[in-house]
Queue: 2 jobs
Job 1
Amino acid sequence: MIYLDHNATTPPAPAVVAAMLPVLSGLSSGLWANASSQHGPGQEARRALGAMRTTVARVLGCKPAEVVFTSGATEANHLAVRGLLDAAPPERRRVVFSSVEHAGHLRLARALSDGGVQVDFIPVQSDGTLDVSAAGALMGPDVALVSLMAANNETGVLMPVTEVAALAHAAGAPLHVDATQFIGKQPFAFSTCGADAVSLSAHKLQGPKGVGALLLRQGVPFAPQTLGSQERGRRGGTENLAGIVGLAVALELLDDVSAEAARLAGLRDALECGLARALPTMHVWSRGVPRLPGTSYLRFGQLPAEVVLHRLDRLGVAASSGAACSSGGSEPSHVLTAMGVPAAEALAAVRLSLGRTTTAEEVAYLLHTLPPLLEPLLREEMLTAP
Ligand code: PMP
């Protein structure tokens, strides 16, 4: 199988799994214990938790005390937004999101709005980049927080985090950044990124599912949401030590981010150029703007995504569409809709996301096998076009 869906999740690295197993089984140590317990095994688990926190902080360029372990990025995003909003002064009741945030995050925006909080959305341009002047116009003394992703999970477009941080801070508001797709694919340091809170998820960077973190700048007013003594009172609940070990090991494996980014950009460009040569009606969104190195968001004429995904499946290639499926029907991607893409084109969107396991041989195989399968379909589409 050729796996080209790394933005959905990544296969866990063998070193990650090997490091987690002893914590899960608890046969050779007391690491299965509750890190809040006072007995020997509990202390052992607590020491391991502290060591993992130090590792995570070192790799991500923050202080250990700024790391709040969570069950993943969805929880970290909710924790950040509700935690910053609830701690904001009463005259700040408006929040500003980008219009292309992750689907789960936009559901949170809707829930806030239903609860009486004003939510404003920063638009994007037709190439998927953020409209920074519109962002500036949305700032004001009533803003409680701004939430912006570092890189879009569909287009891969990189967002102007430091610029928006400056705008938010000038208005007296903190910035939360969902860096789930960015960390592991681009160099990152919390201390210099400008954000006050950053979400990440282990399973996007060769770690396990169900674990992530919120990095929270020291001194930023924050109201805990899940109450308990763990994580300095900022996120209650017995820590998932095996998952946290997996996250720390996965982060330690990221010592070659720039080299890997260059390798993936080369593979992605070869894939896009080769497909465009063979199939001239192929279109790549956000091709000319800074984007994640391994993400390719494209359509072949207006062939429905499920037709293309079916052909890819026949070739043993796993990829995904840009449509959100709900109860049998498909809705065009909210990201493409925000870019002004018509529904018929958006429903043709296919995302190929390359990652650490992707090889030049896999790209060559796809270039060799996919065009002959799609070419007759595209010819037929052209003949039947109105
Ligand atoms: N934010 C972004 C940008 C994502 O791509 C994802 C995962 N698809 C999430 C948040 C949610 O992450 P998790 O699965 O860890 O909850």
Note: The domain at 256-384 is CATH 3.90.1150.10 (Aspartate Aminotransferase, domain 1).
Job 2
Amino acid sequence: MRIIKTAVALAALAIAIPAIQAQENPEQKAQRMEWFAHAKLGIFIHWGIYSKGDDSESWPIFNARMTVDDYMKQAECFTADKYDPAEWAKLIKESGARYTVITTKHHDGFALWDTRAGDVSAVKSSPAKRDLIAPFAEAVRNEGIKLGFYYSLIDWPRYDYPNVLRSGPARYDIEKEPERWQHFLDFNSAQLRELDRQWHPDLYWFDGDWEFSAEQWKAADIVAMLRENNPQVVINSRIQGYGDYDTPELGIPVVKPQYKWWETCMTMNDSWGFRIGDDDYKSPMTLLRMFVDCIAHGGNLLLDIGPRADGSIPDEEKAILKEFGRWTSKHAEAIYGTRAGIPADHVAAYTSLNEAGDILYIYLPYRPNESVELKGLKSRVNNIRVVGTDRNADWKLYNDISWSEVPGVYYIEVPEEALDERITVLAVELDEPVRLYRGSGQIISINE
Ligand code: H79
């Protein structure tokens, strides 16, 4: 009896796997994900009524630091009167980012576009009084950048959304009032349909899925609806198992992750949205290191900016974007076409490989003393260039011993004048796709 029950349960599970996921073969998915895999850098934008700057985005509601009314009153300051989407798009392009993701709606339910579903929007409930997504989408596309929409599944202030407070009663129980929950789901779907039909974004960045299950959100239906007209769209992981890629937040994987596509989202200071007094900016050097760390582990960096309520971007953030621009344009070869590098046992630096695997990029976030040591390479080195310069690096190969299986060790001398002020990149050209020696040394006689 138990066996039969298990079989029935398994069959039910198999049916529950959405058709859309079952149908897509790995090559199709790889093709769909290709631009994302090569993009490497994206710019995240958190902009909403919280950009007034007194507290963080949406969370003051959930954490009861503000009443819903006080929180929503911030909309009175949301003027967008210095908003220049062409300038934003130009800055994003200049940074070297290939895509951008903007908050169309955060957990506070405030929509930046002219939504006909609901009354809480820049047009209907703020002095901005206009659609802010339309001109942004146009500017981004004019710059040839991929357009991503952040969309919060959660909407804490809304009367038909169940949750509102972290420690406090829910408005209602979705099991007891399924129609009310369905009403909310219909509202979310209507908004997503508007975004989809008007702008055909290249990417959706969902957030807040943790409050309900895939079945409760009807995640399969949402994804199916978004792929109806836009089958190539890329969807992040925060839709309870129905996404395309993983989204570690504020953390870069320490070892190469198992998952194939991923993106770390990262703040420049300690806040997603503009916040008065948060001057704790990471330096351009620190952020570039994080970027290179993502590249070395085969992922993307989604670097966040938080414009003010008037639409101006803080100078510190502009300066970081510009410094990214300087570094990415100089080192483009070692960014967009790359995949994860080799284990750090071989060189005390971040590394990546070109698609063919016969160029090893070494990223040096420091000035080497005398030389850079590279070991355990079975492939031979043909040449070493300093990327973004016309200089080559000399090297010496020591301990290249005929009777030993342990490869010799390269000592690479980087010309002083060719060093980058932040991260120098070496292109080590090999005679074949890289082969590594991963043993622990040549043992001549055994002790035990
Ligand atoms: O938009 C920014 C943030 O507002 C939002 N995502 C970025 C991009 C975000 N903030 N915090 N989080 C996401 C993390 C959520 C953490 C959680 Fe939990 C831990 C969700 C579930 C467990 C603690 C317990 C917070 C909510 C419940």
Note: The chain has 14 helices and 15 strands.
